[in-house]
Structures are given as structure tokens and as C-alpha cells.
Amino acid sequence: MEDVISSPTTVTNFGGNLTFQPKYHYVPRDEAEVLAILNRHAAGKIRVVGARHAWSEAIVTDDALVDMFHFQHVHTERTADGEIWATIGGGCTLHRALDELARQANATLPALGLITEQTIAGAISTATHGSGRHSIAHYMAEIRVAAYDPQTGQARIFVWNEGPQLRAARCALGCMGIILSMKFRCLPQYSIEESIRRHDTIDEVLAQEADHPLQQFYLAPHVWKYYAQERKALPPEQSRRSWYAWIYRVYWFLMVDISMHVLVKLFAAWLRSRWLVHLQYRRLLPLLMWKPRKLVDRSDRILVMEHELFRHLEIEIFVPARLVRPAAHFVQQVLTVFDGADAIDDAQADELERRGLLGRLMSMRGSFTLHYPITFRRVLPDDTLISMTADASESYYAISFITYVEPRDAFFQLAKFLAESMGPLFAARLHWGKHFPLDHAQIKDAYPNLPEFREICRQTDPRGVFCNEYVKRVLGF
Questions:
Q1: What is the pLDDT of residues 207-256, one digit of tens each?
Q2: Which CATH code of 3.90.180.10, 3.30.70.2520, 3.40.50.300, 3.30.470.20 fits the domain covering 313-438?
Q3: Burial of 243 (0-12, 13-18, 19+ CB in 10 A)
Q4: Cα-Cα-Cα-Cα dihedral of 95, 192, 188, 109, to 10°?
Q5: The dihedral of CA 358, 364, 370, 375: what is its sign?
Q6: How far apart are CA 469 and CA 477, in angstroms?
Q7: Neighbours of 370 (CB within 10 A)
Q8: Which is the most buried residue in 68, 121, 258, 462, by most CB within 10 A?
Q9: What pTM, to 2 d.p., does this model score?
């Protein structure tokens, strides 16, 4: 029978913003045990937990929590025409999946998230993404899910490989059942060429995008300059690894993944010095940043970071590509006010005044100094129902805001203002798996497929077993 931890077990996520005690904590070893759990709790509530690397309340439950730790299998096969397919268990981390794909088939996934410690089921459920491609979920060709038969009410396994059910399951926040496995068509292992350059304006960064479609870039606060990781995939004949690639990886780990984050914690969280935070970006960052030209390394080494080494909290706001320039300007204006500036551009002030937001912004003047670079990543439209770029006619840019300071009340004020203002101003959408201060009434117009999504979920969960308070609040169940 499945492993059960029936005594109260405290569960805390990576960010430390969620702590709860489920009544039952299950770690099933096979699909039969998963079905047994579903039947046992058919009149209760069930949520699934992976690596706990989300910040939203998606995993919270006071009834049954299911940990899919044992579902870590990775099986690859090569078709007669040379295509590489991989079936990956729902509890497998991205790190393990990438290692196994490289070992078994010299292959990789079509898209990668920045953090590889998350489970692939969690990445699918919240439409985790990289930069310059679709979300990982977009590339999922088949999914096997344990849920409830709408006729009998008993648990059974569903397999979806086409149609609206597949589009819904590609980003379902756990509302369609427990993910057992997923199938992807993989890419042969490939190399990335990367250069890092500093730019004065976002226009300069975006001008490089045609030649570097996988680039991501950062807006350094308090100097308001951009650092771009200009990236492109290389054909096999140009994929020879740079001789200094291993040196650069050591440098990046020690100087960026460790040293820069230690300085952030020291100046912002421990010393709480606005002046030192400004100094870090105005003087120290240019000294720390090695900007190589045309570094070549394997894709799964270039496209990821050790971003999970220090506990933090994040909100990520998606804006359509056509609006990324004014959105970036707006973000800069808002952050300078939170940092203590007493005025913003006249045109921006007039727009906020017209929407009744200017007084609210100025009331929070000087309440929070952003201490971490703002990340921009381009995400292509997804073939999904409710992912952040679902049914879009253009790409979106994901803009990430991160804090390492606790308590987080001031950051929550900033996040709430950005979320509530950038929605109407820039047709923004929020990442489902990160801090999400809005409710269904505030976001429903941005997601026209929500009614269809809810109806599909009811077909495999008519009693709302997989719904918790978070998904009710944001999805309108």
C-alpha cells in the first residue's frame, strides 16, 4: 500500500511564504496506489506537491497532499525517421530528465526553465518557460492523468494526446487530476552561442533579437542600464565548445550565483542600506560582470542557473511584445518612486491620475528599494487554454521582480500595485506559479478560454476534489 504520513506534517515551500499542515500526506509508489488515494478521498480535497519551487498557494490543502516522488522514470525511443521521443514521470525533476535524455539519447527538451530542481509536472502545470521559445507545456504531446470517471465517479487513468483536453492539461494548475507521465518530442543535443553586453536602452537590446532569438536580458536598478545575454542555437558544424567554457561556468557560479547574491543579502536584507544597494549596481556590478564574446557551450548548461541557492520570492508579469517598451519605462518610474523619488514623467503621471492610481503610488513613496535585477524573457504564444501566452497573436515578455528581504510586506505592496496597474495599462498577465495578488474578477477578461477550461476540468473532477482556495480565487470555480 502507499506510504502514508497520517500525523500532522508541516509543509513549507522553497520561498518560505507557504506553511500548512495536510491531514494526510501520501507518497504513492505506483499508479494503482494513486487511484486508491483518489477513491479514498473522492468526497474530500486533494492537491499534489512536487519540489515546492512555486510561490503561489497552488499546493495548499488541509486534507490530502500527494507527493509523486517515486514517479521519476525517463524512457526514450527513436522512431524509424530519427525522431526522439521521451516519456517522463510526473515526479521527475527537470535536472534528472535532462541528465537522462543526454545519457540515453544525446537529446534535450525543446524548452527549459531557469531552475532545474522543479518537477516536470509542476513546470507543466504552471507553464514554466525559458526565453525565446514557447513554454515547456506547449511541447507536451501526450499526458497521462489520474482523475475521476464522470459516469461512475471512480478513479481511472485518462490519456490525452489531442483536442481541447490536451490544450487544457498543458497548463491546468492541478485541476484536471494527478499527472502520472508526459510525452515529448525531443531535440538532439545542441549548443548555444552566448555573448553578454551592456546596453543603455531597451531599444538597443531588442535590436539584437533577430540575430539572438534566445536572449534574455536584465534591467539593473538604480543605474537603469540593461545587460543582455545574447543567445542563439548553433548548427552541429559550429557547435565546438569554447575552451574556456568550464572556466566561465566556475566564474558564473562563484561570482553571480554566489557572490552577487551574498551582496544582495548583505546590503538589502541584513544591513538594510539603500545607499549600499545603489552602490552595488552603480559601482560593483560592472566590476563583477565578465562579458564574454561568443562563448559556446551545451544548451542545458547555458540556459539554466543555480537560482535556488538563496530563498527568495518572485512575481512575474507578462506583457505583449508590442507594449514591452512602455511597460519597461513604467516599471522604472514606479520603482524610482518606491525608492524615494517624488515625481514621475508628466505623461505617466497624467495616465495614472486618470485611472485613479497616482495618489496610491505616491502614498508608497520611499517604502521599498528594489535590490535585484529585473529579468525580461520573451515567450512565444502557447497552444494552451490558460497559460500566460495562451491563444496570443504575438509573443509576450515575462518581467520578473524578486525580493530577498524579509519580512516582505513592502514588496507585497509593490507587487500588488504593479499587478493591478499593469493589467489595464499593458494587458498584463501574471505567472500562475508565482506570487499572485489578483483574483478572478481582475484577470478574467485576459483569459477568454477560462469558461471552457473550467468545463473541461469538471468532466474529470465533477465534485471539485482538485480545487483548493487558490484555484477557486483565481480561476473562478
A1: 999 999 999 999 999 999 999 999 999 998 888 899 999 999 999 899 88
A2: 3.30.70.2520
A3: exposed
A4: 40
A5: negative
A6: 10
A7: 24
A8: 121
A9: 0.95
